[in-house]
Amino acid sequence: MNTRLVNRRSMAGLGALLLLALTAVPAHGLAAAAPAESSAPSGLTGLEPTGDDMPTVGGNLGNQHYSSLTQIGKRNVDRLAPAWRTHVSAVEPASDDVGQQTTPIVVDGVIYLDSPSGGVIAVDGATGASVWKWEPTEFDTVDTRRGVSAGEGRIYTLADGDRVVALDQATGEQVWVVQPTAPDGQSLGNLERVATVYNDGIVYAHAANGDRAAVVALDADDGSYLWHFFGGPDRDAVYTDVNGNTVAAGETWGPPLPDGTECALIGGATPWIHGSVDPELGMYYMTFGNARSCRSSQDGSLRPGDNLFSSTLVAVDAATGDYKWHYQSIRHDVWDMDNVHPPTLANIAVAGEPRKVLFYGSKSGHQFVLDRTNGQPVLPVVEKEMITDSRQNHAETQPFPEKRLLPECVVWEKLDPDNVPGDPWRAVPNYNGYQPDAEGNLVFNPESYVAADEPFLTYPQNYPSDHRQGCMYDPQWDLPILSTTSQNGGGDWSNNAYSHSTNMVYFPYGTNPVAHWNGAAANGQRAIGQYQTGGILGYDASTGEVRWQNHLGTDMSHGQGPLATASDLLFAGQIDGRLLAMNARDGKVLWDFQTGTGIASAPVTYSVNGEQYVAVFAAGSTNPYGASVTQGDSLWAFKLGGSYTTESGSPEGPDPAPLSIRRPVSGAAVEGATVGNTVLLARGDRTTDTAAVRDSTAQNAMQPTHLRVPVGSTVTFLNPGAETFPGFPNQKEHCATQFFEGEFNARLQPGETYQHTFDRAGEYFFNDCTDPRPTGKIEVYLTPQDQPGALRFLPSRLNLEPKKSIFSPVTSKVFAYFQLPRGYTYDSGAALIAPLSQNPVEPTKVTSLKNHVVLVFDEADIDHNVPEGQTSLTVRLNVLRDGVQEQLTSTATVRVVK
Predict the structure, then answer these.
(1) In angstroms, rounded to a whole number, what is the distance separating the alpha carbons of residues 514 and 527?
(2) pLDDT tens-digit profile of 562-598?
(3) Confidence band, pLDDT 50/70/90 cuts, at residue 370
(4) Which of 74, 128, 656, 669 is 20 to 30 A from residue 430's alpha carbon, by CA?
(5) Are the C-beta atoms of residues 868 and 765 closer than 8 Å to each other?
C-alpha cells in the first residue's frame, strides 16, 4: 500500500405484460423471510448527501456520488487499509466468471451488486460475508451489468430476454419477473445492461442496443407497465415543453424514405445509462444516444434535420412519463458524440442567485449547466458555426458551453524521439492531410487525400483555417477525418461527482481521438498506434472554470467514476487496478492501493457500527484496452486500521499485467524470418492478385500488420508492383511513416522498396500517407542472455515489515547490484521481475559504474509482488557491446520477511 503526494405514482396505462413468475424461486443463501414493509431504502435522498448508506448507483437520486461521512479524512487517510476482500464468483453457486461494470449500492449496511456472471449478490458490509446470491435457473443472465436498485424491500435487476426482476432484499428470492412491452405489444428495446433506478414505488429501466430503445417505468409492487418514452419519436409526435415551445419531433428525421422506412424508428437514440430523479420537482431525467439508422451512424444523408431525441437529455414527469422539456447537445449527430451519462443534479448559487441545475455532457469534453425546471442554460452557451459537408445534411451551428473542459482540437506535434509520448491529445500523422516534412513537423498538405472532400465543404465566414484541423464536429463522408474527442473519449459513461463542500463537479475523462467515415465500424476508428490515456479534473459548478486537472495516464471514461466525501477526499479507481484517494480541492493523490485487477466501477462509502468503510468492485472490463486488462471478481472494503492481508502476506494485490496503452494493430504477430523480413504496403494480404485488394485502405493493409524481428534486423518495406502482383499491381504512391519517433518516412512508387535496420528494441508503428488507415507495427525484441551469479541484493534478507504499524506505508529501499561482463555498458530498460506479477517493477534510480549497475527499488513497489519466505527475483537490463544492444538477465534468491 503506497502513500504518494502528487408524490407516489399514478397509473399511465396497462400495457402488454408477460408475467413470468409471481411465486418465489429459491436463492442461494438465507432462508425465506417475510416480505419487508413497502418503503424506500433508508438514506434514499434526492439531492441531499448520503450518510450511513449509499442506496443508489448514483449515491443519491441526483447522481451526486457525495457522502457526508467524514471519519476518513485527509489527515488520516494514510491509515486506510483493507478490512476484507470477497471473491464474489467463488460464492456458491460458484463460477469462474470475471469482469463486470457494476457499481455497488449499500442499504442498511449490506452491499448489493451484480456478479460477473450477471447474477446478484448481497454482502455484509462489515465482514464481507455473503448474505445471499441469486443466479436464475429458468432463464439466463447477461454478462454486462451496471448496477441494481432497492426499494419496497426488494432489489431490482435485469436479465436475459429483456427481463426486469425483483428479488426479496432479505433473502434473494425472486418476487416477480416481467418482460415489459409497449401497450401495443411493441418491443421497448434490449433491457439487459443499464442500472435500474427506484423511486416512490416506481422502477425505471433503460434499454440499450436494438433497433429502437426506450425508458420504461414499472410498478415496483408487481412489475406492471406504467409508461415508456422512446428516443426515436413516431412520425406524428409533437411535444410542447414547460416554456410553451412546441416541436414536431418526428419531423426532425426528414421525410420517410421511398420504401416507407422511418429513420427515427429503426436505430439509435438509445438510453445507454441510468437517469436521475428530482423528487421535489417530480421529474425524471434521461439521456439518449446518437442516431444510428439509415445506412450508418456516420452517414446522415438520409435523415436530414436535428434527429430528436438523439444526443438529447429529456425531462419527463417521473410518475406519468409526460414530456416536460429537452435539451439537444448535438444536432444531427454523425460522430457518436452522444453525451450519454448519468445526469448530475445540484442546488447551487450562480452569480449570487440560488439555482436548481443539472450537469449534462460527457463524450464531447464539455458540460452544459442547465436549469432543471425548464432546460434553459444557466451558464453561457454559444452557437458556433461549423464546417459543413453538403452530402451530410449537417447542422450549420452547434451549441458549445462557453467554458470548455477538454481541448477542442487534436494536436499536430513534431515526430521526434525526444517528444514521446507527447501531448495527450496528439494526433497520429497523415490523418487529415497532416504529413511530416523533412524535420518531422506535421504540415498540412492540400494535395493529400482530403482534397477530394473540398468541393463539398463550406467553411464559416472568418474561419481561422482553410482546412479541417481535427476539431470537434469536423465533417466527414467516405474518407477518414480524425477529430476529438471521440465515441470512446471525453467522459463517456463514467459518472461525475458533485461536492457540497467544494462546490466542484469532478469529471473523469479519456483521450482517444477517432477517425470517422461512412463505413467505419464501431462508430469510428480509434487511430491505431495512438496513446489511449486519461485522467480526472475538477471544475467550479457555479462558473464552469476548471480548478485542477490530473492526467493520471489511464482511460477513466468507462465506469471509473469518482466518489466525493465531506472530508474533501475524492476516491476513484483505475483500469490498472489502483484505487486512489485524492485531495478534492487540488487533485493531488494522497493514497493509492493496488487491488490486483482492473476497476470499471465507482467506489462507495458507508458506515456500520460507527466505522466508515470505502468499498470498490475490482472486476475489470475491456474498454478501451481489450484483453490486456486483468479482470477479476474482487469486492474490496477498506477502513481505518484495516488488517486484511492477501495471499502474499501484504495488504495489496499483485500488479496486474501491463496495459496496451497504445491502440493495437489488427492481426497476430508474424516472425520476420517467415516472410523475409518484408512488409507489403497497401495490400489486404500477401498473395491475392485482384483489383479489389490493390491500393487497399483497410486498417490491416500492411502485410503483416505486426512483424517481429530481433534487434539488428533489416526490414524491407515494399510498395508491390508488377513483379509482385503481375495482374493487379498497386498503382499509387504509398508511404511507411513511422510515429511518433519519426525514425523513417519512406515514400514509395509501385515496385520501389525501402530498407531500415532496427538497432534498438521497441515497438515502431507506421502508417500510409496515401490513406492513413492502414497501420502496421514492427516489434523489435532482444533475446535475454542469462548471467548466473551476476545479481545480488544487499541485504539478501528483505525485511518488508511496516516500520511503525501494520497501517504505515512501506517506504524503505531495496538495493540490487548487477555485475556486467567485460566490454558491456548499461543502456536502458532495467526492471525487476517478481514472482507474483507479470508487470516488471521499474527502479527509482539506476547508477551505471565501470563494471556493474546499482539499482534502487522502492520496497512498496516490491512488497505486494513477492511472497514471504525464500523467493527468486530476476533483474533484466539492456546493455551495449560494441554499440550493439543486447539484454542480460540474472536471478538471485532472497528471503522475504513481512
Answers:
(1) 6
(2) 999 999 999 999 999 999 999 999 999 999 999 999 9
(3) very high
(4) 669
(5) no
Residues 6 or more apart whose CB falls under 8 angstroms from that of 778 comprise 679, 707, 709, 715, 758, 763, 764, 766
What is the phi/psi pair of residue 419, to 5°?
Answer: -125, 45
Confidence check: pLDDT of 11 > 90: no
Closest CA to 192 of 166, 159, 223: 159
CA–CA dist 227, 755 (Å, integer)? 66
Query: For residues 731 and 725, what is the distance between their CA atoms, to the nearest angstrom?
Result: 11
Task: Say whether 510 sits in a helix, a strand or coil.
Answer: strand
Helix and strand numbers, DSSP H then E, in the chain: 1, 64
One DSSP character per residue, 611-627 reads EEEEEEEE----TTTGG
Q: Is 431 helix (H, G, I), strand (E, B) or coil?
A: helix
- The bridge status of strand 202-206 relative to strand 214-219 is antiparallel
Tell me the C-alpha to C-alpha distance, in Å, between residue 288 and each of 181, 270, 294, 339.
Answer: 19, 5, 18, 8
Which pLDDT tens digit goes with each residue over 514-539?
999 998 988 899 999 999 999 999 99
The answer to whether 554 and 533 have CB atoms below 8 angstroms apart is: yes
pLDDT-derived band of residue 282, with 50, 70 and 90 as boundaries? Answer: very high
Query: pLDDT for 833-870, tens place per residue?
Result: 999 998 999 999 999 998 999 999 999 999 999 999 99
pLDDT of 177 higher than 90: yes
Reported confidence tier of residue 171, pLDDT bands at 50, 70, 90: very high
Q: What angle do CA 332, 336, 342 make, to 5 degrees?
A: 105
Distance CA 168, CA 173 (A): 5
Strand order in the sheet with 283-288: 276-278, 283-288, 312-317, 323-328
Beta strands in 289-380 (DSSP E): 312-317, 323-328, 344-350, 353-360, 368-371
| Burial class, 822, CB count within 10 angstroms (exposed 0-12 / middle 13-18 / buried 19+) | exposed
Instruction: Tally the residues of the chain.
Output: 898
SS3 at position 629: coil
* Count of other CB atoms within 10 angstroms of residue 175: 25
Q: Count Cα neighbours of 737 within 13 Å in the Cβ-side half-sphere.
A: 31
According to DSSP, residue 37 is labeled P
Other Cβ atoms within 10 Å of 96 Cβ, number: 9
Going by their DSSP bridges, the two strands 797-799 and 745-748 should be labelled as unpaired
Higher pLDDT, 21 or 880: 880
| Best CA proximity match to 101, nearest among 561, 519, 462 | 561
Per the CB < 8 A criterion, the answer to whether 327 and 374 are in contact is no
Nearest alpha-carbon partner for 873 in 856, 890, 857, 848? 890
Q: In 3D, which of 63, 150, 56 has the Cα closest to residue 104?
A: 56
